[in-house]
Amino acid sequence: MENCDKYADIWDYPYEKHKLGRMPLLERAAQFTPFAALTGHDAAITETARYTEKKRELDEEERDLLDMKLAALRQLLSLAPQVSITYFLADTKKQGGCYCTVDCVLAKLDSYNKKLITTEGLVISWQNIVAIEANVLGDKF
């Protein structure tokens, strides 16, 4: 009863209801949305669910064929050959990546750095290339 005695002086005051009434629940909940405990959680789940492919390794026969195509294209660089290149593009945020196919004009084959350079400025490492198609190669390959 000790706790009740300290409020004895206000027991007889009349109860006054709020003049504006109660705040609707939706508005009350909206007050706390800036303080969401899991900020960025949806983005993390979306990133984790995003599919990436594993890079496949070419067998020796496929690698030899690709090397022969690159050697033939080196001889035809002065013709600015139109090529279709399929290559592996590594993902910047997680392990794996995707395979891309680009139609472009070949500008340079850098043997020292083992890179292929297009007239559009795209630089592709030879180790990421899985297929090259070009009309100038004809039926050789």
Tell me about this structure:
The structure is a single chain. The chain has 141 residues and is α+β, with helices and mostly antiparallel strands. 25% of the residues lie in helices and 26% in strands. It has helices spanning 2-5, 25-30, 41-49, 60-75, and strands spanning 82-90, 97-110, 115-118, 123-125, 129-134. A hairpin with a 4-residue loop joins β3 and β4. It starts with a helix and ends in a 7-residue tail after the last strand.
Brief rundown of the structure:
The chain has about 140 residues and is of the alpha+beta class. The protein has helices spanning about 1-5, 25-30, 40-50, 60-75; strands at about 80-90, 95-110, 115-120, 125, 130-135. It is rod-shaped.
Terminal CA distance reads 99 Å
Instruction: Tell me the series of helices and strands, N- to C-terminal.
Output: HHHHEEEEE
Let me know the number of strands: 5
Task: Give the C-alpha Rg.
Answer: 34 Å
Report mean pLDDT, rounded to a whole number.
85
Helix content: 10-25%
How is the main sheet built? 5 strands, antiparallel
Strand order of the largest sheet: 4-3-2-1-5
- Shape estimate: rod-shaped
